[in-house]
Design goal:
Elements: E1 9-20, E2 23-34, E3 38-43, H1 49-57, E4 64-69, E5 72-73, E6 84-87, H2 99-109, H3 114-127, H4 143-155, E7 161-165, H5 173-190, E8 193-198, H6 201-207, E9 210-215, E10 218-223, H7 225-230, H8 235-240, E11 245-254, E12 259-263, E13 268-272, E14 283-288, E15 294-296, E16 305-317, E17 321-328, E18 333-339, E19 354-360, E20 365-367
Parallel strand pairs: 3-8, 3-9, 6-7, 7-8
Antiparallel strand pairs: 1-2, 1-4, 4-5, 9-10, 11-12, 11-14, 12-13, 14-20, 15-19, 16-17, 16-19, 17-18
Helix pairs in contact: 2-3, 2-4, 3-4
Bound molecules: adenosine-5'-triphosphate.
Adenosine-5'-triphosphate binds next to α1.
Length: 369
Protein backbone atom coordinates (compact mmCIF):
# COMPACT_ATOMS: atom_id res chain seq x y z
CA UNK A 1 0.00 0.00 0.00
CA UNK A 2 3.01 2.35 0.15
CA UNK A 3 2.20 3.82 -3.28
CA UNK A 4 -1.57 3.97 -2.92
CA UNK A 5 -2.32 7.70 -3.06
CA UNK A 6 -5.30 7.27 -0.77
CA UNK A 7 -3.38 5.62 2.07
CA UNK A 8 0.03 7.29 1.82
CA UNK A 9 -0.08 10.64 3.56
CA UNK A 10 0.23 13.47 1.11
CA UNK A 11 1.09 16.01 3.76
CA UNK A 12 2.92 15.00 6.90
CA UNK A 13 3.68 17.05 9.99
CA UNK A 14 6.28 15.22 12.06
CA UNK A 15 6.69 16.51 15.63
CA UNK A 16 6.37 20.09 14.44
CA UNK A 17 6.96 22.81 17.03
CA UNK A 18 6.91 26.56 16.48
CA UNK A 19 8.14 28.89 19.19
CA UNK A 20 7.88 32.67 19.16
CA UNK A 21 10.41 33.62 21.83
CA UNK A 22 9.52 31.38 24.77
CA UNK A 23 5.95 30.91 23.60
CA UNK A 24 4.89 27.63 21.99
CA UNK A 25 2.41 28.58 19.24
CA UNK A 26 2.51 25.00 17.93
CA UNK A 27 3.69 22.27 20.26
CA UNK A 28 4.87 18.91 18.89
CA UNK A 29 2.17 18.40 16.27
CA UNK A 30 2.17 15.21 14.21
CA UNK A 31 -0.51 14.90 11.56
CA UNK A 32 -1.11 13.14 8.25
CA UNK A 33 -3.36 14.58 5.56
CA UNK A 34 -4.29 12.52 2.50
CA UNK A 35 -4.57 13.38 -1.17
CA UNK A 36 -7.92 14.88 -2.22
CA UNK A 37 -8.97 15.58 1.34
CA UNK A 38 -10.77 18.74 2.40
CA UNK A 39 -9.09 18.98 5.76
CA UNK A 40 -9.97 21.53 8.45
CA UNK A 41 -7.83 22.85 11.29
CA UNK A 42 -10.42 23.93 13.85
CA UNK A 43 -9.89 25.87 17.05
CA UNK A 44 -10.45 29.08 18.93
CA UNK A 45 -8.44 32.26 18.63
CA UNK A 46 -4.74 31.79 19.28
CA UNK A 47 -4.75 27.96 19.26
CA UNK A 48 -2.02 27.84 16.60
CA UNK A 49 -4.05 26.80 13.55
CA UNK A 50 -2.90 29.69 11.36
CA UNK A 51 0.71 29.17 12.37
CA UNK A 52 0.42 25.52 11.31
CA UNK A 53 -1.02 26.59 7.94
CA UNK A 54 1.67 29.24 7.46
CA UNK A 55 4.38 26.64 8.09
CA UNK A 56 2.82 24.45 5.42
CA UNK A 57 2.88 27.40 3.01
CA UNK A 58 6.49 28.22 3.91
CA UNK A 59 5.78 31.67 5.44
CA UNK A 60 7.14 30.35 8.75
CA UNK A 61 9.78 27.71 9.36
CA UNK A 62 9.23 25.21 12.21
CA UNK A 63 11.46 25.65 15.25
CA UNK A 64 11.79 21.87 15.21
CA UNK A 65 10.18 18.95 13.41
CA UNK A 66 9.61 18.25 9.74
CA UNK A 67 6.94 18.91 7.13
CA UNK A 68 6.63 16.74 4.03
CA UNK A 69 4.45 17.41 0.99
CA UNK A 70 4.14 14.58 -1.51
CA UNK A 71 7.12 12.89 0.06
CA UNK A 72 9.42 15.93 -0.17
CA UNK A 73 10.94 17.49 2.95
CA UNK A 74 9.93 21.16 2.88
CA UNK A 75 12.76 22.38 5.14
CA UNK A 76 14.22 25.54 3.60
CA UNK A 77 11.90 25.45 0.55
CA UNK A 78 10.54 28.99 -0.02
CA UNK A 79 6.77 29.53 -0.46
CA UNK A 80 6.94 30.08 -4.21
CA UNK A 81 8.73 26.78 -4.75
CA UNK A 82 6.19 24.76 -2.76
CA UNK A 83 3.30 22.95 -4.48
CA UNK A 84 0.91 25.04 -2.38
CA UNK A 85 -1.14 28.15 -2.90
CA UNK A 86 -2.76 30.22 -0.17
CA UNK A 87 -6.14 31.89 -0.39
CA UNK A 88 -6.35 34.67 2.16
CA UNK A 89 -9.36 35.82 4.11
CA UNK A 90 -9.00 39.35 2.75
CA UNK A 91 -9.14 37.98 -0.84
CA UNK A 92 -6.50 40.52 -1.94
CA UNK A 93 -7.86 41.01 -5.44
CA UNK A 94 -6.24 43.73 -7.55
CA UNK A 95 -8.85 46.52 -7.52
CA UNK A 96 -7.92 48.04 -10.87
CA UNK A 97 -8.08 44.73 -12.75
CA UNK A 98 -11.17 42.98 -14.10
CA UNK A 99 -12.22 39.58 -12.84
CA UNK A 100 -10.56 37.78 -15.75
CA UNK A 101 -7.37 39.85 -15.44
CA UNK A 102 -7.21 38.99 -11.75
CA UNK A 103 -7.51 35.29 -12.50
CA UNK A 104 -5.03 35.48 -15.39
CA UNK A 105 -2.41 37.48 -13.49
CA UNK A 106 -0.30 34.59 -12.17
CA UNK A 107 -0.41 32.80 -15.51
CA UNK A 108 0.93 35.85 -17.34
CA UNK A 109 3.73 36.05 -14.79
CA UNK A 110 4.60 32.44 -15.55
CA UNK A 111 4.81 33.36 -19.24
CA UNK A 112 2.12 31.01 -20.52
CA UNK A 113 0.93 31.52 -24.12
CA UNK A 114 -2.04 33.89 -24.38
CA UNK A 115 -4.39 31.35 -25.96
CA UNK A 116 -3.71 28.87 -23.19
CA UNK A 117 -4.32 31.53 -20.55
CA UNK A 118 -7.63 32.42 -22.17
CA UNK A 119 -8.81 28.80 -22.03
CA UNK A 120 -7.65 28.24 -18.46
CA UNK A 121 -9.26 31.45 -17.22
CA UNK A 122 -12.54 30.84 -18.97
CA UNK A 123 -12.71 27.24 -17.67
CA UNK A 124 -11.97 28.41 -14.17
CA UNK A 125 -14.56 31.22 -14.27
CA UNK A 126 -17.12 28.69 -15.48
CA UNK A 127 -16.23 26.39 -12.58
CA UNK A 128 -16.85 29.11 -10.01
CA UNK A 129 -19.90 30.37 -11.94
CA UNK A 130 -18.44 33.80 -12.61
CA UNK A 131 -18.24 33.75 -16.44
CA UNK A 132 -20.81 36.48 -16.87
CA UNK A 133 -18.91 38.80 -14.53
CA UNK A 134 -15.58 38.38 -16.34
CA UNK A 135 -15.18 42.05 -17.21
CA UNK A 136 -16.30 43.52 -13.90
CA UNK A 137 -13.95 45.09 -11.38
CA UNK A 138 -13.81 43.75 -7.79
CA UNK A 139 -15.72 46.75 -6.39
CA UNK A 140 -18.63 45.86 -8.67
CA UNK A 141 -18.98 42.43 -7.05
CA UNK A 142 -20.64 41.15 -3.89
CA UNK A 143 -18.56 39.59 -1.11
CA UNK A 144 -19.51 36.10 -2.21
CA UNK A 145 -18.57 36.84 -5.81
CA UNK A 146 -15.21 38.27 -4.77
CA UNK A 147 -14.61 35.14 -2.77
CA UNK A 148 -15.27 33.02 -5.86
CA UNK A 149 -12.85 35.10 -7.94
CA UNK A 150 -10.20 34.69 -5.26
CA UNK A 151 -10.79 30.95 -5.34
CA UNK A 152 -10.52 30.89 -9.13
CA UNK A 153 -7.27 32.83 -8.94
CA UNK A 154 -5.85 30.41 -6.37
CA UNK A 155 -6.87 27.33 -8.32
CA UNK A 156 -6.01 28.37 -11.86
CA UNK A 157 -2.33 27.52 -11.40
CA UNK A 158 -3.37 24.03 -10.37
CA UNK A 159 -1.56 23.80 -7.02
CA UNK A 160 -1.30 20.37 -5.40
CA UNK A 161 -2.50 21.87 -2.14
CA UNK A 162 -4.77 24.85 -1.64
CA UNK A 163 -4.50 26.51 1.77
CA UNK A 164 -7.52 28.49 2.91
CA UNK A 165 -7.36 30.81 5.90
CA UNK A 166 -10.93 31.42 7.15
CA UNK A 167 -12.11 31.38 3.53
CA UNK A 168 -15.68 32.41 4.33
CA UNK A 169 -14.87 34.72 7.24
CA UNK A 170 -15.99 37.88 5.47
CA UNK A 171 -19.40 36.58 4.40
CA UNK A 172 -22.68 36.90 6.28
CA UNK A 173 -24.31 33.79 7.73
CA UNK A 174 -26.71 33.00 4.91
CA UNK A 175 -24.12 33.46 2.20
CA UNK A 176 -21.58 31.49 4.21
CA UNK A 177 -23.85 28.47 4.32
CA UNK A 178 -24.50 28.59 0.60
CA UNK A 179 -20.83 29.15 -0.21
CA UNK A 180 -19.77 26.24 2.00
CA UNK A 181 -21.52 23.82 -0.33
CA UNK A 182 -20.19 25.57 -3.43
CA UNK A 183 -16.64 25.28 -2.14
CA UNK A 184 -17.10 21.59 -1.40
CA UNK A 185 -18.51 21.01 -4.89
CA UNK A 186 -15.62 22.81 -6.51
CA UNK A 187 -13.11 20.92 -4.40
CA UNK A 188 -14.70 17.63 -5.44
CA UNK A 189 -14.56 18.64 -9.10
CA UNK A 190 -10.92 19.73 -9.14
CA UNK A 191 -9.73 17.10 -6.62
CA UNK A 192 -7.09 19.44 -5.19
CA UNK A 193 -6.18 18.79 -1.56
CA UNK A 194 -7.65 21.63 0.52
CA UNK A 195 -6.37 22.52 3.98
CA UNK A 196 -8.61 25.04 5.65
CA UNK A 197 -8.35 27.00 8.88
CA UNK A 198 -11.56 27.92 10.68
CA UNK A 199 -12.81 28.75 14.15
CA UNK A 200 -16.37 27.85 13.14
CA UNK A 201 -17.23 24.29 14.10
CA UNK A 202 -20.36 24.18 11.95
CA UNK A 203 -18.35 25.23 8.94
CA UNK A 204 -15.71 22.57 9.61
CA UNK A 205 -18.39 19.91 10.14
CA UNK A 206 -20.27 20.85 6.96
CA UNK A 207 -17.27 21.04 4.70
CA UNK A 208 -14.40 18.89 5.87
CA UNK A 209 -13.73 15.21 5.29
CA UNK A 210 -11.62 15.26 8.45
CA UNK A 211 -10.93 17.80 11.15
CA UNK A 212 -8.17 18.40 13.69
CA UNK A 213 -9.44 20.15 16.80
CA UNK A 214 -6.66 22.35 18.23
CA UNK A 215 -6.13 24.06 21.56
CA UNK A 216 -3.05 25.73 23.06
CA UNK A 217 -0.80 24.69 20.18
CA UNK A 218 -1.69 20.99 20.33
CA UNK A 219 -4.09 18.79 18.39
CA UNK A 220 -6.69 17.50 20.83
CA UNK A 221 -8.32 15.12 18.37
CA UNK A 222 -8.41 14.31 14.66
CA UNK A 223 -11.31 12.55 12.98
CA UNK A 224 -14.26 12.74 10.65
CA UNK A 225 -17.07 15.08 11.71
CA UNK A 226 -19.01 11.99 12.78
CA UNK A 227 -16.16 10.61 14.89
CA UNK A 228 -15.58 13.92 16.64
CA UNK A 229 -19.26 14.38 17.41
CA UNK A 230 -20.08 10.83 18.44
CA UNK A 231 -16.76 9.81 20.00
CA UNK A 232 -15.07 12.87 21.47
CA UNK A 233 -11.92 11.94 23.38
CA UNK A 234 -12.04 14.83 25.83
CA UNK A 235 -14.32 17.42 27.35
CA UNK A 236 -12.59 19.98 25.18
CA UNK A 237 -13.61 18.32 21.90
CA UNK A 238 -17.07 17.43 23.20
CA UNK A 239 -17.64 21.10 24.05
CA UNK A 240 -16.01 22.55 20.99
CA UNK A 241 -17.82 20.36 18.46
CA UNK A 242 -21.54 20.81 19.05
CA UNK A 243 -23.46 21.19 22.27
CA UNK A 244 -23.04 18.78 25.14
CA UNK A 245 -24.13 18.06 28.70
CA UNK A 246 -21.21 17.01 30.90
CA UNK A 247 -21.86 15.27 34.20
CA UNK A 248 -18.97 14.54 36.53
CA UNK A 249 -18.84 11.29 38.51
CA UNK A 250 -16.71 8.52 39.94
CA UNK A 251 -16.49 4.93 38.71
CA UNK A 252 -18.01 2.72 41.44
CA UNK A 253 -18.67 -0.57 39.66
CA UNK A 254 -17.75 -2.13 36.33
CA UNK A 255 -16.94 -5.24 34.35
CA UNK A 256 -16.43 -5.96 30.62
CA UNK A 257 -20.04 -5.18 29.79
CA UNK A 258 -21.09 -2.26 31.89
CA UNK A 259 -20.02 0.47 34.26
CA UNK A 260 -21.73 2.48 36.94
CA UNK A 261 -20.65 6.01 37.59
CA UNK A 262 -21.77 7.71 40.76
CA UNK A 263 -22.40 11.39 40.28
CA UNK A 264 -22.75 13.58 43.34
CA UNK A 265 -23.55 16.53 41.09
CA UNK A 266 -26.53 14.76 39.55
CA UNK A 267 -27.21 12.82 42.79
CA UNK A 268 -27.57 9.48 41.01
CA UNK A 269 -25.82 6.41 39.66
CA UNK A 270 -25.38 6.56 35.90
CA UNK A 271 -25.44 3.28 34.05
CA UNK A 272 -23.15 2.79 31.03
CA UNK A 273 -23.73 -0.25 28.79
CA UNK A 274 -20.08 -0.83 27.89
CA UNK A 275 -16.74 -1.19 29.63
CA UNK A 276 -14.80 1.94 30.54
CA UNK A 277 -11.01 2.13 30.74
CA UNK A 278 -10.16 2.96 34.31
CA UNK A 279 -10.13 1.88 37.93
CA UNK A 280 -12.79 2.29 40.56
CA UNK A 281 -12.63 5.63 42.28
CA UNK A 282 -11.45 7.35 39.11
CA UNK A 283 -13.22 10.54 37.96
CA UNK A 284 -15.07 10.55 34.65
CA UNK A 285 -17.35 12.87 32.76
CA UNK A 286 -20.47 11.61 31.06
CA UNK A 287 -21.05 13.51 27.81
CA UNK A 288 -24.60 13.49 26.47
CA UNK A 289 -25.70 15.42 23.42
CA UNK A 290 -28.89 17.46 23.96
CA UNK A 291 -30.78 15.61 21.22
CA UNK A 292 -30.07 12.27 22.93
CA UNK A 293 -31.97 13.28 26.04
CA UNK A 294 -35.72 12.65 25.98
CA UNK A 295 -38.17 14.42 28.20
CA UNK A 296 -41.08 12.35 29.45
CA UNK A 297 -43.70 12.70 32.14
CA UNK A 298 -43.79 9.07 33.38
CA UNK A 299 -40.72 7.33 34.73
CA UNK A 300 -39.86 4.44 32.36
CA UNK A 301 -39.76 0.87 33.68
CA UNK A 302 -36.92 -0.16 31.42
CA UNK A 303 -33.64 -0.04 33.32
CA UNK A 304 -31.61 0.58 30.18
CA UNK A 305 -32.67 4.21 30.55
CA UNK A 306 -30.94 6.62 32.86
CA UNK A 307 -33.55 8.81 34.37
CA UNK A 308 -33.35 12.07 36.32
CA UNK A 309 -36.22 14.19 37.48
CA UNK A 310 -36.42 17.93 37.20
CA UNK A 311 -38.36 20.97 36.12
CA UNK A 312 -38.42 22.80 32.82
CA UNK A 313 -36.71 26.12 33.35
CA UNK A 314 -36.27 27.61 29.92
CA UNK A 315 -37.76 26.96 26.52
CA UNK A 316 -36.47 28.11 23.17
CA UNK A 317 -38.49 27.72 19.98
CA UNK A 318 -36.28 27.59 16.88
CA UNK A 319 -38.84 26.51 14.32
CA UNK A 320 -37.53 23.07 13.46
CA UNK A 321 -36.27 22.50 16.98
CA UNK A 322 -37.27 23.29 20.53
CA UNK A 323 -34.64 23.60 23.23
CA UNK A 324 -35.27 23.11 26.91
CA UNK A 325 -33.17 23.75 29.96
CA UNK A 326 -34.20 21.40 32.72
CA UNK A 327 -33.16 22.07 36.32
CA UNK A 328 -32.65 18.64 37.85
CA UNK A 329 -33.64 18.05 41.47
CA UNK A 330 -29.92 17.78 42.25
CA UNK A 331 -29.50 21.39 41.11
CA UNK A 332 -27.58 20.88 37.87
CA UNK A 333 -29.01 21.90 34.53
CA UNK A 334 -29.46 19.75 31.46
CA UNK A 335 -29.96 20.99 27.94
CA UNK A 336 -32.35 19.09 25.72
CA UNK A 337 -33.29 19.61 22.07
CA UNK A 338 -36.28 18.05 20.37
CA UNK A 339 -37.21 18.21 16.70
CA UNK A 340 -40.60 19.77 16.00
CA UNK A 341 -42.13 17.39 13.49
CA UNK A 342 -44.97 18.61 11.30
CA UNK A 343 -47.52 17.28 13.78
CA UNK A 344 -45.72 18.62 16.77
CA UNK A 345 -45.37 22.24 15.94
CA UNK A 346 -45.23 23.70 19.39
CA UNK A 347 -42.88 22.88 22.25
CA UNK A 348 -44.27 19.95 24.18
CA UNK A 349 -43.48 21.34 27.59
CA UNK A 350 -43.73 24.64 29.24
CA UNK A 351 -42.11 26.55 32.05
CA UNK A 352 -42.14 24.71 35.43
CA UNK A 353 -43.40 21.40 33.98
CA UNK A 354 -42.21 18.37 35.95
CA UNK A 355 -40.34 16.00 33.65
CA UNK A 356 -37.99 13.07 33.60
CA UNK A 357 -34.86 13.61 31.57
CA UNK A 358 -33.88 10.19 30.24
CA UNK A 359 -31.26 8.78 27.93
CA UNK A 360 -30.35 5.29 26.82
CA UNK A 361 -27.33 3.88 28.55
CA UNK A 362 -25.58 3.65 25.18
CA UNK A 363 -26.23 7.26 24.25
CA UNK A 364 -23.47 8.88 26.29
CA UNK A 365 -19.70 9.02 25.95
CA UNK A 366 -17.52 8.47 29.00
CA UNK A 367 -14.53 10.79 29.14
CA UNK A 368 -11.53 10.62 31.41
CA UNK A 369 -10.15 14.09 30.64
P1 LIG B 1 -6.81 33.31 15.21
O1 LIG B 1 -8.04 32.53 14.85
O2 LIG B 1 -7.05 34.37 16.23
O3 LIG B 1 -6.04 33.78 14.01
P2 LIG B 1 -4.93 31.12 15.46
O4 LIG B 1 -5.36 29.87 16.08
O5 LIG B 1 -4.85 31.15 13.99
O6 LIG B 1 -5.85 32.29 15.98
P3 LIG B 1 -2.12 31.71 15.43
O7 LIG B 1 -2.19 32.86 14.50
O8 LIG B 1 -1.61 30.45 14.90
O9 LIG B 1 -3.55 31.48 16.10
O10 LIG B 1 -1.27 32.15 16.69
C1 LIG B 1 -1.01 31.26 17.75
C2 LIG B 1 -0.32 32.01 18.86
O11 LIG B 1 0.98 32.42 18.44
C3 LIG B 1 -1.04 33.28 19.28
O12 LIG B 1 -1.01 33.36 20.69
C4 LIG B 1 -0.26 34.40 18.63
O13 LIG B 1 -0.31 35.55 19.41
C5 LIG B 1 1.14 33.82 18.57
N1 LIG B 1 1.86 34.33 17.39
C6 LIG B 1 1.54 34.14 16.11
N2 LIG B 1 2.44 34.72 15.28
C7 LIG B 1 3.35 35.31 16.07
C8 LIG B 1 4.54 36.07 15.84
N3 LIG B 1 4.96 36.34 14.58
N4 LIG B 1 5.22 36.51 16.90
C9 LIG B 1 4.82 36.23 18.17
N5 LIG B 1 3.72 35.52 18.46
C10 LIG B 1 2.99 35.05 17.44
Amino acid sequence: PWNNPDTVPFIRFENVTKKFGDFYAVDDVSLDIYRHELFALLGGSGCGKTTLLRMLAGFEEPTSGKIFIDGVDMAGVPPYERPTNMMFQSYALFPHMSVEQNVAFGLHQDGLPKSEIRTLVSDMLALVQMSKFATRKPHQLSGGQRQRVALARSLVKNPKVLLLDEPLGALDKKLREQTQFELVNIQEKVGTTFVMVTHDQEEAMTMASRISVMNDGVIKQTGTPFELYEYPNSRFTANFVGQVNLIEGVLVDDDEKYAIIRSDDADCDIYIDHAVQGHQGMTFWIAIRPERVRLITEKPEDTKYNCLSGKVEEIGYLGGLSTYHVRLDSGIRIKVTEPNSTRQIEPRYTWDDRVWATWESGAASVLSQ
